[in-house]
Every structure is written in structure tokens, then in C-alpha cells.
Amino acid sequence: MKIQDIIIWTLVVVSIMMALWYLFGNSPTFEQAILVFVLTLLFTIHTKISNIATKMDYLEKRFFKIEESFIKLTKDFKEHIKHK
């Protein structure tokens, strides 16, 4: 489990606790309860987007290597045709 996952689950638990605390009274204001929920959502979205961006960078680098391989392959075929 990554540290990001631990933080997300902790924020989810705190959000649920704040919502229940607000519902049963003697609690923080509505805005404070919503703030914790919004922070949880924002951190989760940020984590997911950064993971997707990392995967896209990996795929882009891999695609570039495949493209280079095809360029080399076409050069080899052209040289082969010249030798005939």
C-alpha cells in the first residue's frame, strides 16, 4: 500500500466521522464538515491524475522506442533492396 492510499483512506474515515458528528449534534459547522469532504475528493483526484500522467509518460516513451525500431527496419529494407 502506498502512502497516498493511506492518506486517502484516513481522509475518508475523517470525512465520515465529521459527517456523523455533524448529524448527531454538538459538532463543527456545516462548512467545516464539507471542507474535510472536499479536501478528500481533491486529494483523491490529484492522486489519480498523477498516476495516469505517469502511465502516459511511460507509454509515450515506449511508443517512441517502437517508432525508432520501425525507422531502423525501413532503412534495413531499403539497403536490402539496393543490394539486389
What can you see in these coordinates?
This protein has helices at 3-23, 30-83. It has two helices and no strands. The model has no long low-confidence stretch (mean pLDDT 82). It has one domain (3-83). The relative contact order is 0.08.
Radius of gyration: 26 Å
Return residue spans where pLDDT drops below 50 for at least 5 consecutive residues. none
The SSE string, one letter per element, is HH
Number of domains: 1
User: Total number of helical segments?
Assistant: 2
Overall geometry comes to: rod-shaped
Largest sheet: none
Helix content: over 70%
Mean pLDDT: 82
Distance separating the two termini: 59 Å
**Structural class of the helix and strand makeup?**
mainly alpha
Number of strands: 0
Strand percentage: under 5%
Features of this protein?
mainly alpha, 84 residues, 89% helix
Break the fold down into its secondary structure elements and pairings.
Layout: H1 3-23, H2 30-83
Q: Nutshell version of this structure?
A:
With 84 residues, the chain is mainly α. The chain contains 2 helices and no strands.
